[in-house]
User: Fold this.
Amino acid sequence: MVLVCLGRGRAGDMLSGLGRSTIWNQTIPEELRGRLAGIEVLSYSVGPQLGQVRAGAMAGWTGTGRRSGRAGWRAWPRWRC
Assistant:
């Protein structure tokens, strides 16, 4: 089941990329493509790292103490059903 979901996600990502490249080639003038491609690569490379910074900031703000572990342990009997 997991592999099916991963395959579907990858297929959706490929279709999204195809649509993006089609729109890119039809709407952006050739003299601007190099500059805009650099900005796009920068946004793709920095995006995940900024997400990690945001997650770390939230964990620092809310705390990651034993509370979350106890909450998961209390919900464990419901997971078995």
About this structure: Residues 49 and 55 are 10 Å apart (CA to CA). The two ends are 19 Å apart (CA to CA). The chain has three helices and no strands. The helical segments are 2-27, 30-62, 66-79.
